[in-house]
Amino acid sequence: MSRIINLNSPAKIRNRNQRTIAEILRRMSTKPDFDDESKDMSATLVYLLREIYSGVFVSVEAWEKRGYWMKADRFIREWQWTIDTATNLEDVIRNDAWDLLPRLLGEMYPHTAGIELKKMTRPPSTWEGAYRRLMDEPPSESPW
Questions:
Q1: Which residues touch 101 (CB under 8 Å, ≥6 apart)?
Q2: pLDDT tens-digit map of 48-89
Q3: E runs forming strands in the chain
Q4: Cα–Cα dist 49/56, whole Å
Q5: Integer Cα distance of 55 and 95 in angstroms
Q6: What are the C-alpha distances in Å from 1 to residues 4, 7, 11?
Q7: What is the CA radius of gyration of the chain?
Q8: Domain regions of the chain by residue span
Q9: In principle, which of 19, 35, 45, 83 could form an S-S bond with 53, CB 3.0–4.6 Å?
Q10: Which of 28, 29, 79 is nearest to 51 (CA)?
Q11: In this structure, what are the phi and psi dihedrals at residue 106, rounded to the nearest 5 degrees?
Q12: What are the tens digits of pLDDT across the range 2-37?
């Protein structure tokens, strides 16, 4: 029997999502005004951050099985910003507190500053409709 190789490991998903976040942040920083596309991009950030944080626990499981408790705990703390930011962004979106958005986006920049973007590769379809989808969901009670 051959090994099963997971092509979508949590680390790969985390890296892909971080790059998408970096692209969205760069695109939003160049927009002259706040529009419907900006709302979709903001909602997409919520989804990406949630996905990153849920993948953290998949990575941590293997370490906990081996008794690497401190390493697992450190890794969770390292990525805690993702769920905190996702919760804050969702709150801003749901309450139409768009004036708070620039501060939240600014807090995300240091986490994506190391990602080199030579060209934008994410199409607008990546975030289209995300705002409506988020607003149609019941407000999250942050299961994290």
A1: 34, 42, 89, 92
A2: 999 999 999 888 998 888 999 999 999 999 999 999 999 999
A3: none
A4: 11
A5: 28
A6: 9, 18, 26
A7: 16
A8: 10-136
A9: 83
A10: 79
A11: -65, -35
A12: 666 666 788 899 999 999 999 999 999 998 889 999
